[in-house]
Amino acid sequence: MIFPFLDMFFSSFKGVAEYSKMKYSLFPDSFQWENYRTAFNNLNMLVLFRNSLTRSVILTILVLLTSSMSGYALAKLRFRGKAIIFRFILSTMMFPGFLFLIPNFYIIVHFPMAGGNDIFGNGGNGGLATTVFGLVVPSMVSAFGIFLMRQFIMTINDAYLEAARVDGASELRIFAQLILPMTVPALATLAIFEFIGSWNEFIWALLLSSINPDLATLPVGIQTLKSNLDPTLTQPLVMAGLVISTVPILLIFILLQKYYVRGLTNVGLK
């Protein structure tokens, strides 16, 4: 599992001739530190990093909010059609993501009262596709996140909720002060999955960056380092960019690892 990361790290220091030679070697003959300098010079790394971080943080927060609220409603509240709604949400997980690519793009471009569009979505100025909201809105609700939070919240004893209701607490207060603190392991697990997924997402970011290049993220920018004539000529530069883009993911996982492990442990004990 660790070997691909080691190969990526050491390949980022290799020269052109070293990477393309037939006899493989994990370690470079000499460390080419200028690969990182070249990657920074060829890419607007700070802008790409800012776009990726902004998108991932906002999207992770929105998914945690929508998933926890939906999970609480589907797990603990009583209303007609709850089972049908839950099954419908689960059914959306059977469809591949690229199936919604064109419909989502059409909705974002023709979003009413945004980006120069009128109330009917006409205007031809790109709508939300020219703003950072276009990177976030299509993925702000996660069927997997709703499923994960619903299953975790169902393990919470109803006696806690009934006691809070007897004391006069509203559903919003129960959710904020009782449910959320008790679901920290599940929230941390979902945050890891969502942050990594949004950080590495490529197709949607590439599509919107074709309309507004200022919305390009790190995965999109790193691909521009590749040579169209011979990809092996610039592969060490791509590896250097990948090393830089991997650092935030490692930090997020290290910070939330104890909550992730605690969540798995709790589920196993129950």
Automatic annotation (TrEMBL):
It is found in: Cell membrane. The keyword Calcium does not apply. Keywords: Cell membrane, Membrane, Transmembrane, Transmembrane helix, Transport. Its main location: membrane. The keyword Repeat does not apply. It is a multi-pass membrane protein. The chain crosses the membrane at residues 53-75, 84-108, 128-153, 174-196, 237-256. Residues 49-256 form the ABC transmembrane type-1 domain. InterPro entries: MetI-like, MetI-like_sf. GO terms for cellular component: plasma membrane. Pfam families: BPD_transp_1. One of its GO terms (biological process) is transmembrane transport. It comes from the Bacteria. Belongs to the binding-protein-dependent transport system permease family. This is ABC transporter permease. It comes from Paenibacillus nasutitermitis.
